[in-house]
Specification:
The chain contains eleven helices and 19 strands. The protein is of the alpha+beta class. Helix 2 crosses helix 4, helix 2 packs across helix 5 and helix 6 packs antiparallel against helix 7. Bound molecules: the ligand Nc1nc2c(c(=O)[nH]1)N[C@H]1C(S)=C(S)[C@@H](COP(=O)(O)O)O[C@H]1N2 and molybdenum atom. This is Molybdopterin-dependent oxidoreductase.
Protein backbone atom coordinates (compact mmCIF):
# COMPACT_ATOMS: atom_id res chain seq x y z
CA UNK A 1 0.00 0.00 0.00
CA UNK A 2 2.63 2.48 1.10
CA UNK A 3 4.67 1.73 -1.98
CA UNK A 4 1.73 2.91 -4.09
CA UNK A 5 0.84 5.88 -1.95
CA UNK A 6 4.08 7.71 -2.69
CA UNK A 7 3.88 7.35 -6.52
CA UNK A 8 0.19 8.26 -6.41
CA UNK A 9 1.15 11.41 -4.51
CA UNK A 10 3.79 12.10 -7.15
CA UNK A 11 1.09 11.89 -9.80
CA UNK A 12 -1.17 14.31 -7.93
CA UNK A 13 1.67 16.74 -7.27
CA UNK A 14 2.80 16.61 -10.91
CA UNK A 15 -0.74 17.31 -12.11
CA UNK A 16 -0.97 20.28 -9.73
CA UNK A 17 2.32 21.63 -11.04
CA UNK A 18 1.00 21.22 -14.59
CA UNK A 19 -2.39 22.77 -13.89
CA UNK A 20 -0.76 25.71 -12.08
CA UNK A 21 1.73 26.29 -14.91
CA UNK A 22 -1.11 26.14 -17.44
CA UNK A 23 -3.15 28.55 -15.34
CA UNK A 24 -0.26 31.01 -15.21
CA UNK A 25 0.28 30.92 -18.98
CA UNK A 26 -3.48 31.25 -19.58
CA UNK A 27 -3.57 34.25 -17.25
CA UNK A 28 -1.02 35.93 -19.51
CA UNK A 29 -2.79 34.96 -22.75
CA UNK A 30 -6.45 33.86 -22.53
CA UNK A 31 -7.73 33.05 -19.01
CA UNK A 32 -10.56 30.80 -20.20
CA UNK A 33 -7.97 28.54 -21.88
CA UNK A 34 -6.68 27.48 -18.45
CA UNK A 35 -6.86 23.65 -18.61
CA UNK A 36 -9.43 23.00 -15.86
CA UNK A 37 -11.63 25.91 -16.99
CA UNK A 38 -11.53 24.74 -20.62
CA UNK A 39 -12.86 21.32 -19.57
CA UNK A 40 -15.42 22.97 -17.26
CA UNK A 41 -16.73 25.20 -20.07
CA UNK A 42 -17.17 22.21 -22.31
CA UNK A 43 -19.07 20.41 -19.54
CA UNK A 44 -21.36 23.45 -19.20
CA UNK A 45 -22.05 23.50 -22.94
CA UNK A 46 -22.72 19.76 -23.13
CA UNK A 47 -24.81 19.44 -19.95
CA UNK A 48 -28.45 18.76 -20.83
CA UNK A 49 -30.82 21.55 -19.88
CA UNK A 50 -32.66 19.66 -17.07
CA UNK A 51 -29.35 18.85 -15.35
CA UNK A 52 -28.27 22.48 -15.67
CA UNK A 53 -31.57 23.64 -14.18
CA UNK A 54 -31.14 21.17 -11.33
CA UNK A 55 -27.58 22.37 -10.66
CA UNK A 56 -28.64 26.04 -10.66
CA UNK A 57 -31.54 25.20 -8.30
CA UNK A 58 -29.31 23.14 -5.96
CA UNK A 59 -26.17 25.21 -5.90
CA UNK A 60 -27.32 28.65 -7.04
CA UNK A 61 -24.39 30.86 -7.89
CA UNK A 62 -21.99 28.25 -6.43
CA UNK A 63 -22.77 25.95 -9.38
CA UNK A 64 -19.59 27.02 -11.18
CA UNK A 65 -17.27 26.58 -8.20
CA UNK A 66 -18.71 23.10 -7.70
CA UNK A 67 -18.24 22.27 -11.38
CA UNK A 68 -14.62 23.43 -11.46
CA UNK A 69 -13.94 21.60 -8.18
CA UNK A 70 -15.37 18.38 -9.60
CA UNK A 71 -13.30 18.62 -12.78
CA UNK A 72 -10.17 19.27 -10.73
CA UNK A 73 -10.95 16.32 -8.42
CA UNK A 74 -11.40 14.04 -11.45
CA UNK A 75 -8.07 15.19 -12.89
CA UNK A 76 -6.28 14.55 -9.59
CA UNK A 77 -7.70 11.02 -9.25
CA UNK A 78 -6.51 10.12 -12.74
CA UNK A 79 -3.19 11.81 -12.02
CA UNK A 80 -2.74 9.54 -8.98
CA UNK A 81 -3.20 6.55 -11.29
CA UNK A 82 -0.64 8.08 -13.67
CA UNK A 83 1.81 8.37 -10.77
CA UNK A 84 1.42 4.68 -9.89
CA UNK A 85 1.86 3.69 -13.53
CA UNK A 86 4.95 5.86 -13.86
CA UNK A 87 6.64 4.06 -10.96
CA UNK A 88 6.53 0.83 -13.03
CA UNK A 89 6.92 2.13 -16.57
CA UNK A 90 7.53 5.86 -16.71
CA UNK A 91 6.26 6.13 -20.27
CA UNK A 92 2.84 4.76 -19.36
CA UNK A 93 2.37 7.21 -16.54
CA UNK A 94 3.65 10.09 -18.65
CA UNK A 95 1.30 9.05 -21.45
CA UNK A 96 -1.73 9.08 -19.12
CA UNK A 97 -0.71 12.50 -17.78
CA UNK A 98 -0.28 13.62 -21.39
CA UNK A 99 -3.79 12.44 -22.28
CA UNK A 100 -5.21 14.32 -19.27
CA UNK A 101 -3.66 17.48 -20.65
CA UNK A 102 -4.46 16.75 -24.29
CA UNK A 103 -8.21 16.82 -23.58
CA UNK A 104 -8.23 20.49 -22.51
CA UNK A 105 -5.88 21.31 -25.39
CA UNK A 106 -8.54 20.04 -27.79
CA UNK A 107 -11.29 22.01 -26.05
CA UNK A 108 -9.58 25.33 -25.38
CA UNK A 109 -9.42 28.19 -27.83
CA UNK A 110 -5.70 28.45 -27.14
CA UNK A 111 -3.54 25.31 -26.86
CA UNK A 112 -0.45 26.94 -25.36
CA UNK A 113 -1.58 26.73 -21.68
CA UNK A 114 -2.34 23.03 -22.08
CA UNK A 115 1.00 22.32 -23.78
CA UNK A 116 2.85 24.10 -20.98
CA UNK A 117 0.72 22.23 -18.42
CA UNK A 118 1.65 18.93 -20.06
CA UNK A 119 5.36 19.71 -20.22
CA UNK A 120 5.46 20.96 -16.62
CA UNK A 121 3.43 18.01 -15.31
CA UNK A 122 5.46 15.35 -17.12
CA UNK A 123 8.68 17.10 -16.15
CA UNK A 124 7.68 17.11 -12.50
CA UNK A 125 6.66 13.45 -12.64
CA UNK A 126 9.94 12.54 -14.30
CA UNK A 127 12.10 14.31 -11.73
CA UNK A 128 10.10 12.87 -8.79
CA UNK A 129 10.16 9.33 -10.16
CA UNK A 130 13.85 9.46 -11.05
CA UNK A 131 14.94 10.89 -7.71
CA UNK A 132 13.10 8.09 -5.91
CA UNK A 133 14.47 5.37 -8.20
CA UNK A 134 17.99 6.73 -7.78
CA UNK A 135 17.59 6.02 -4.08
CA UNK A 136 16.98 9.66 -3.25
CA UNK A 137 13.74 8.83 -1.46
CA UNK A 138 14.84 10.61 1.69
CA UNK A 139 15.86 14.19 2.10
CA UNK A 140 16.37 14.95 -1.57
CA UNK A 141 12.97 13.56 -2.48
CA UNK A 142 11.24 15.56 0.22
CA UNK A 143 13.05 18.72 -0.83
CA UNK A 144 12.11 18.20 -4.44
CA UNK A 145 8.45 17.49 -3.64
CA UNK A 146 8.34 20.50 -1.32
CA UNK A 147 9.93 22.70 -3.97
CA UNK A 148 7.42 21.57 -6.58
CA UNK A 149 4.48 22.14 -4.22
CA UNK A 150 5.68 25.67 -3.46
CA UNK A 151 6.24 26.26 -7.18
CA UNK A 152 2.70 25.09 -7.98
CA UNK A 153 1.23 27.38 -5.31
CA UNK A 154 3.28 30.32 -6.55
CA UNK A 155 2.33 29.78 -10.20
CA UNK A 156 -1.33 29.23 -9.37
CA UNK A 157 -1.41 32.32 -7.14
CA UNK A 158 0.38 34.44 -9.72
CA UNK A 159 -2.08 33.25 -12.38
CA UNK A 160 -5.00 34.24 -10.23
CA UNK A 161 -3.57 37.62 -9.45
CA UNK A 162 -2.72 38.39 -13.09
CA UNK A 163 -6.19 37.32 -14.23
CA UNK A 164 -7.97 39.48 -11.70
CA UNK A 165 -5.65 42.37 -12.51
CA UNK A 166 -6.31 42.09 -16.23
CA UNK A 167 -10.08 41.82 -15.74
CA UNK A 168 -10.21 44.66 -13.20
CA UNK A 169 -12.75 47.40 -13.48
CA UNK A 170 -11.78 49.96 -16.08
CA UNK A 171 -13.65 53.24 -15.80
CA UNK A 172 -14.45 55.04 -19.01
CA UNK A 173 -15.64 58.62 -18.98
CA UNK A 174 -19.33 58.49 -19.71
CA UNK A 175 -20.91 61.51 -21.39
CA UNK A 176 -24.16 62.83 -19.95
CA UNK A 177 -27.36 61.42 -21.41
CA UNK A 178 -29.01 63.40 -24.19
CA UNK A 179 -32.26 61.86 -22.97
CA UNK A 180 -31.90 61.44 -19.19
CA UNK A 181 -34.13 59.42 -16.89
CA UNK A 182 -36.31 61.40 -14.48
CA UNK A 183 -34.88 61.95 -10.97
CA UNK A 184 -34.83 58.61 -9.18
CA UNK A 185 -37.54 58.47 -6.48
CA UNK A 186 -36.71 57.60 -2.90
CA UNK A 187 -37.78 54.01 -2.33
CA UNK A 188 -38.89 52.23 0.80
CA UNK A 189 -35.34 51.05 1.59
CA UNK A 190 -35.17 52.83 4.93
CA UNK A 191 -38.83 52.48 5.88
CA UNK A 192 -39.17 48.72 5.43
CA UNK A 193 -36.17 46.90 6.92
CA UNK A 194 -35.25 43.81 4.91
CA UNK A 195 -36.82 44.95 1.64
CA UNK A 196 -34.75 44.81 -1.60
CA UNK A 197 -33.20 48.19 -2.30
CA UNK A 198 -35.15 50.08 -4.93
CA UNK A 199 -32.03 50.22 -7.08
CA UNK A 200 -29.75 47.20 -6.93
CA UNK A 201 -26.15 48.22 -6.26
CA UNK A 202 -23.96 46.89 -9.11
CA UNK A 203 -21.90 44.83 -6.66
CA UNK A 204 -25.08 42.99 -5.52
CA UNK A 205 -26.54 42.60 -8.99
CA UNK A 206 -27.14 38.94 -9.92
CA UNK A 207 -24.81 37.49 -12.50
CA UNK A 208 -25.79 34.74 -14.91
CA UNK A 209 -23.68 33.62 -17.87
CA UNK A 210 -22.01 30.54 -19.25
CA UNK A 211 -18.48 31.73 -18.51
CA UNK A 212 -16.03 30.39 -15.95
CA UNK A 213 -13.49 33.19 -16.44
CA UNK A 214 -14.35 36.80 -17.20
CA UNK A 215 -13.31 37.88 -20.69
CA UNK A 216 -10.59 40.46 -20.96
CA UNK A 217 -11.77 43.13 -23.34
CA UNK A 218 -9.57 45.99 -24.40
CA UNK A 219 -11.84 49.00 -24.77
CA UNK A 220 -9.53 50.62 -27.34
CA UNK A 221 -9.59 47.68 -29.70
CA UNK A 222 -13.26 46.81 -29.17
CA UNK A 223 -15.83 47.35 -31.94
CA UNK A 224 -19.49 46.58 -32.41
CA UNK A 225 -20.42 45.44 -35.92
CA UNK A 226 -23.89 45.22 -37.45
CA UNK A 227 -24.01 42.80 -40.37
CA UNK A 228 -26.16 40.15 -42.04
CA UNK A 229 -29.29 41.18 -43.89
CA UNK A 230 -28.63 44.92 -43.82
CA UNK A 231 -28.13 47.57 -46.46
CA UNK A 232 -24.57 48.18 -45.35
CA UNK A 233 -22.37 46.58 -42.73
CA UNK A 234 -21.34 49.13 -40.10
CA UNK A 235 -18.91 49.06 -37.19
CA UNK A 236 -18.65 51.33 -34.18
CA UNK A 237 -15.73 51.89 -31.86
CA UNK A 238 -16.48 52.64 -28.23
CA UNK A 239 -15.68 56.32 -28.79
CA UNK A 240 -18.10 56.41 -31.72
CA UNK A 241 -20.84 54.89 -29.57
CA UNK A 242 -20.17 57.39 -26.79
CA UNK A 243 -20.39 60.24 -29.30
CA UNK A 244 -23.97 59.27 -30.23
CA UNK A 245 -26.96 60.60 -28.28
CA UNK A 246 -27.29 58.49 -25.12
CA UNK A 247 -30.51 57.54 -23.37
CA UNK A 248 -30.75 56.79 -19.67
CA UNK A 249 -33.45 54.44 -18.37
CA UNK A 250 -34.42 52.55 -15.21
CA UNK A 251 -34.91 48.91 -16.22
CA UNK A 252 -35.31 45.71 -14.22
CA UNK A 253 -33.41 42.76 -15.69
CA UNK A 254 -34.67 39.23 -15.02
CA UNK A 255 -33.23 35.79 -15.72
CA UNK A 256 -35.45 33.10 -17.18
CA UNK A 257 -33.90 30.72 -14.61
CA UNK A 258 -35.38 32.74 -11.77
CA UNK A 259 -37.69 30.52 -9.72
CA UNK A 260 -40.78 32.10 -8.18
CA UNK A 261 -39.42 34.06 -5.21
CA UNK A 262 -35.85 33.73 -6.55
CA UNK A 263 -32.88 36.09 -6.60
CA UNK A 264 -32.01 36.27 -10.33
CA UNK A 265 -33.48 39.72 -10.80
CA UNK A 266 -31.96 43.16 -10.42
CA UNK A 267 -32.92 46.76 -11.12
CA UNK A 268 -30.49 49.37 -12.40
CA UNK A 269 -30.18 52.67 -14.22
CA UNK A 270 -28.75 52.00 -17.68
CA UNK A 271 -27.07 54.41 -20.09
CA UNK A 272 -26.68 53.55 -23.73
CA UNK A 273 -27.39 54.11 -27.39
CA UNK A 274 -30.87 53.30 -28.65
CA UNK A 275 -30.81 50.04 -30.56
CA UNK A 276 -32.91 51.54 -33.35
CA UNK A 277 -30.40 54.42 -33.79
CA UNK A 278 -27.69 51.84 -34.46
CA UNK A 279 -29.81 49.63 -36.70
CA UNK A 280 -30.83 52.68 -38.73
CA UNK A 281 -27.20 53.28 -39.67
CA UNK A 282 -26.97 49.76 -41.07
CA UNK A 283 -30.30 50.14 -42.85
CA UNK A 284 -32.86 47.47 -41.99
CA UNK A 285 -35.74 49.06 -43.89
CA UNK A 286 -36.23 46.17 -46.27
CA UNK A 287 -34.77 43.33 -44.26
CA UNK A 288 -36.47 39.95 -44.15
CA UNK A 289 -34.69 39.16 -40.89
CA UNK A 290 -36.73 38.21 -37.82
CA UNK A 291 -33.92 37.96 -35.28
CA UNK A 292 -30.90 39.88 -34.10
CA UNK A 293 -28.20 37.31 -33.46
CA UNK A 294 -25.79 38.92 -31.00
CA UNK A 295 -22.29 37.54 -30.61
CA UNK A 296 -19.96 38.24 -27.69
CA UNK A 297 -16.17 38.53 -27.63
CA UNK A 298 -15.74 34.74 -27.60
CA UNK A 299 -18.51 33.72 -29.95
CA UNK A 300 -21.31 33.11 -27.44
CA UNK A 301 -24.61 33.89 -29.23
CA UNK A 302 -27.91 35.31 -27.99
CA UNK A 303 -30.95 35.76 -30.23
CA UNK A 304 -33.48 38.57 -29.87
CA UNK A 305 -36.76 38.88 -31.77
CA UNK A 306 -36.24 41.85 -34.08
CA UNK A 307 -39.88 42.98 -34.06
CA UNK A 308 -39.97 43.13 -30.25
CA UNK A 309 -36.62 44.89 -29.91
CA UNK A 310 -37.70 47.60 -32.38
CA UNK A 311 -41.34 48.08 -31.30
CA UNK A 312 -40.64 51.39 -29.61
CA UNK A 313 -39.49 50.11 -26.22
CA UNK A 314 -36.25 51.42 -24.73
CA UNK A 315 -33.95 48.73 -26.11
CA UNK A 316 -30.34 49.86 -26.05
CA UNK A 317 -26.71 48.95 -26.28
CA UNK A 318 -25.75 49.94 -22.77
CA UNK A 319 -22.34 51.29 -21.80
CA UNK A 320 -23.23 52.47 -18.31
CA UNK A 321 -24.89 50.92 -15.26
CA UNK A 322 -25.82 52.87 -12.15
CA UNK A 323 -23.76 55.88 -13.19
CA UNK A 324 -20.51 54.08 -14.04
CA UNK A 325 -19.16 52.06 -16.91
CA UNK A 326 -20.24 48.43 -17.03
CA UNK A 327 -18.20 46.14 -14.79
CA UNK A 328 -16.44 43.11 -16.30
CA UNK A 329 -19.13 40.85 -14.75
CA UNK A 330 -21.94 42.77 -16.38
CA UNK A 331 -20.59 43.05 -19.91
CA UNK A 332 -17.84 45.70 -20.19
CA UNK A 333 -17.61 47.63 -22.43
CA UNK A 334 -21.13 47.20 -23.87
CA UNK A 335 -24.17 44.96 -23.68
CA UNK A 336 -27.70 44.82 -24.92
CA UNK A 337 -30.63 45.66 -22.63
CA UNK A 338 -34.24 45.16 -23.77
CA UNK A 339 -36.99 45.95 -21.26
CA UNK A 340 -39.55 43.18 -20.87
CA UNK A 341 -37.54 40.27 -22.31
CA UNK A 342 -35.66 37.73 -20.20
CA UNK A 343 -31.88 38.19 -20.30
CA UNK A 344 -31.18 35.01 -22.30
CA UNK A 345 -32.99 36.45 -25.34
CA UNK A 346 -31.92 40.05 -24.98
CA UNK A 347 -29.10 41.01 -22.67
CA UNK A 348 -25.95 39.88 -24.54
CA UNK A 349 -22.93 40.98 -22.50
CA UNK A 350 -19.49 41.75 -23.99
CA UNK A 351 -21.33 42.18 -27.30
CA UNK A 352 -19.28 42.62 -30.49
CA UNK A 353 -21.69 41.80 -33.31
CA UNK A 354 -25.35 41.99 -34.18
CA UNK A 355 -26.28 39.92 -37.21
CA UNK A 356 -29.68 40.46 -38.82
CA UNK A 357 -30.86 36.99 -39.78
CA UNK A 358 -33.78 34.58 -39.41
CA UNK A 359 -34.57 31.95 -36.79
CA UNK A 360 -34.86 29.46 -39.66
CA UNK A 361 -31.30 30.16 -40.77
CA UNK A 362 -29.33 30.50 -37.55
CA UNK A 363 -29.64 29.21 -33.98
CA UNK A 364 -28.30 30.93 -30.89
CA UNK A 365 -26.85 29.14 -27.85
CA UNK A 366 -30.12 28.77 -25.94
CA UNK A 367 -32.28 28.21 -29.03
CA UNK A 368 -30.17 25.17 -29.87
CA UNK A 369 -31.00 23.92 -26.41
CA UNK A 370 -34.76 24.25 -27.00
CA UNK A 371 -35.44 27.33 -24.88
CA UNK A 372 -38.10 29.73 -26.13
CA UNK A 373 -37.08 32.35 -28.70
CA UNK A 374 -39.58 35.06 -27.79
CA UNK A 375 -39.72 35.15 -24.02
CA UNK A 376 -41.45 38.10 -22.35
CA UNK A 377 -40.79 38.39 -18.62
CA UNK A 378 -43.77 36.99 -16.73
CA UNK A 379 -45.35 39.23 -14.11
CA UNK A 380 -44.31 38.13 -10.64
CA UNK A 381 -43.56 39.21 -7.10
CA UNK A 382 -41.36 38.26 -4.18
CA UNK A 383 -41.59 38.47 -0.41
CA UNK A 384 -38.29 39.85 0.94
CA UNK A 385 -39.33 40.16 4.55
CA UNK A 386 -39.99 38.14 6.63
CA UNK A 387 -37.75 35.39 5.28
CA UNK A 388 -39.18 31.89 4.77
CA UNK A 389 -39.23 29.96 8.08
CA UNK A 390 -38.13 33.06 10.01
CA UNK A 391 -39.32 33.57 13.57
CA UNK A 392 -40.98 36.95 13.96
CA UNK A 393 -41.87 38.77 17.20
CA UNK A 394 -45.60 38.88 17.79
CA UNK A 395 -47.27 42.27 17.34
CA UNK A 396 -46.98 44.98 14.73
CA UNK A 397 -44.61 44.15 11.88
CA UNK A 398 -44.50 44.45 8.07
CA UNK A 399 -44.54 42.06 5.16
CA UNK A 400 -42.65 43.55 2.23
CA UNK A 401 -40.94 42.86 -1.06
CA UNK A 402 -40.79 43.66 -4.75
CA UNK A 403 -43.12 43.06 -7.68
CA UNK A 404 -42.60 43.39 -11.41
CA UNK A 405 -44.57 43.54 -14.63
CA UNK A 406 -41.99 44.99 -17.01
CA UNK A 407 -43.44 46.51 -20.12
CA UNK A 408 -46.97 45.41 -19.26
CA UNK A 409 -47.91 48.90 -18.07
CA UNK A 410 -46.08 48.12 -14.85
CA UNK A 411 -47.35 46.98 -11.47
CA UNK A 412 -50.84 48.30 -10.73
CA UNK A 413 -51.51 46.37 -7.54
CA UNK A 414 -49.81 43.94 -5.18
CA UNK A 415 -51.93 41.65 -3.04
CA UNK A 416 -50.99 39.63 0.01
CA UNK A 417 -52.80 36.62 1.41
CA UNK A 418 -52.34 35.57 5.01
CA UNK A 419 -53.25 32.02 6.06
CA UNK A 420 -55.36 31.42 2.97
CA UNK A 421 -57.68 34.36 3.71
CA UNK A 422 -58.82 37.06 1.29
CA UNK A 423 -56.24 38.87 -0.88
CA UNK A 424 -55.43 42.18 0.80
CA UNK A 425 -54.07 45.13 -1.08
CA UNK A 426 -50.50 46.04 -0.16
CA UNK A 427 -49.14 49.60 -0.22
CA UNK A 428 -46.86 50.42 -3.11
CA UNK A 429 -43.58 52.28 -3.10
CA UNK A 430 -42.93 54.96 -5.75
CA UNK A 431 -42.81 54.15 -9.46
CA UNK A 432 -39.66 54.50 -11.55
CA UNK A 433 -41.51 53.58 -14.73
CA UNK A 434 -43.26 50.55 -16.16
CA UNK A 435 -40.03 48.74 -17.01
CA UNK A 436 -38.90 48.87 -13.40
CA UNK A 437 -39.91 46.85 -10.38
CA UNK A 438 -41.96 48.26 -7.54
CA UNK A 439 -41.46 47.86 -3.81
CA UNK A 440 -44.51 47.02 -1.68
CA UNK A 441 -45.39 46.41 1.97
CA UNK A 442 -48.31 45.48 4.16
CA UNK A 443 -48.46 46.30 7.88
CA UNK A 444 -49.32 43.13 9.79
CA UNK A 445 -50.27 42.48 13.39
CA UNK A 446 -48.75 39.05 13.83
CA UNK A 447 -50.46 36.65 16.22
CA UNK A 448 -48.38 33.87 17.80
CA UNK A 449 -48.28 30.62 15.82
CA UNK A 450 -47.38 29.47 12.34
CA UNK A 451 -48.55 31.54 9.37
CA UNK A 452 -48.57 31.18 5.61
CA UNK A 453 -47.94 34.31 3.53
CA UNK A 454 -48.46 34.61 -0.22
CA UNK A 455 -48.09 37.48 -2.69
CA UNK A 456 -49.24 38.24 -6.23
CA UNK A 457 -49.06 41.12 -8.69
CA UNK A 458 -51.74 42.67 -10.84
CA UNK A 459 -50.31 44.51 -13.85
CA UNK A 460 -51.48 47.69 -15.57
CA UNK A 461 -53.50 45.65 -18.04
CA UNK A 462 -55.42 44.05 -15.15
CA UNK A 463 -53.71 40.70 -15.64
CA UNK A 464 -53.28 38.84 -12.37
CA UNK A 465 -50.11 36.85 -11.64
CA UNK A 466 -51.12 33.25 -12.22
CA UNK A 467 -51.02 30.60 -9.50
CA UNK A 468 -50.35 27.94 -12.14
CA UNK A 469 -46.85 26.64 -11.60
CA UNK A 470 -44.34 26.49 -14.44
CA UNK A 471 -40.65 25.59 -14.34
CA UNK A 472 -38.09 28.07 -15.72
CA UNK A 473 -37.64 25.89 -18.83
CA UNK A 474 -38.51 26.81 -21.54
CA UNK A 475 -39.97 30.32 -21.05
CA UNK A 476 -39.80 31.29 -17.40
CA UNK A 477 -41.29 30.20 -14.08
CA UNK A 478 -44.77 31.05 -12.89
CA UNK A 479 -46.81 30.51 -9.74
CA UNK A 480 -47.40 32.36 -6.51
CA UNK A 481 -44.72 32.49 -3.81
CA UNK A 482 -45.94 31.13 -0.53
CA UNK A 483 -43.82 31.13 2.62
CA UNK A 484 -44.29 29.87 6.16
CA UNK A 485 -43.18 31.97 9.14
CA UNK A 486 -43.35 31.45 12.89
CA UNK A 487 -44.57 34.16 15.20
CA UNK A 488 -43.51 33.93 18.83
N1 LIG B 1 -22.24 36.97 -23.51
C1 LIG B 1 -23.21 36.55 -22.70
N2 LIG B 1 -24.23 37.39 -22.42
C2 LIG B 1 -25.22 37.00 -21.59
C3 LIG B 1 -25.21 35.70 -21.02
C4 LIG B 1 -24.14 34.83 -21.33
O1 LIG B 1 -24.07 33.68 -20.88
N3 LIG B 1 -23.14 35.30 -22.17
N4 LIG B 1 -26.25 35.35 -20.18
C5 LIG B 1 -27.51 36.05 -20.34
C6 LIG B 1 -28.46 35.80 -19.28
S1 LIG B 1 -29.13 34.24 -19.22
C7 LIG B 1 -28.89 36.78 -18.42
S2 LIG B 1 -30.16 36.51 -17.36
C8 LIG B 1 -28.24 38.11 -18.39
C9 LIG B 1 -27.74 38.40 -17.00
O2 LIG B 1 -27.05 39.60 -16.97
P1 LIG B 1 -26.23 39.98 -15.67
O3 LIG B 1 -25.25 38.86 -15.41
O4 LIG B 1 -25.58 41.28 -15.94
O5 LIG B 1 -27.22 40.08 -14.54
O6 LIG B 1 -27.14 38.16 -19.28
C10 LIG B 1 -27.34 37.55 -20.52
N5 LIG B 1 -26.22 37.86 -21.35
MO1 LIG C 1 -30.77 34.26 -17.80
Amino acid sequence: MRTRLVPAGFGVLSALVGVAAGHLVAALTEPSASPVLAVGSQVIDLTPTPVKEWAIAQFGTHDKAILVGSVLAGVLVLAAVAGVLAARRFLYGAALLGVLVAVPALLATDVLPSLVAGAAGIGALWSLTRTRQAGGGGRRGVLLAGGLAVGALAMGGAGRWITSYRSRVVEIDLPAAADPAPPFPTGLDDRVPGISSFRTPTSDFYRVDTRLALPIVDADGWTLTIDGDVEQEVSFTLDELLAMPLVERDITLTCVSNEVGGQYIGAARWLGVRLTDLLEQAGIGSTSADQILSTDVDGMTISTPLAVATDGRDAMIAVGMNGRSLTPEHGFPARMVVPGLYGFVSACKWITRMTLTTYAEQDAYWTERDWATDAPIKISSRIDTPKPLATVDAGRTVIGGVAWAQHQMGVAKVEVRIDGGAWQQARLGPSAGDDYWRQWYLPWTAEPGQHTLAVRTVDGEDDVQTAVRATPFPEGSSGVQEIVVNVA
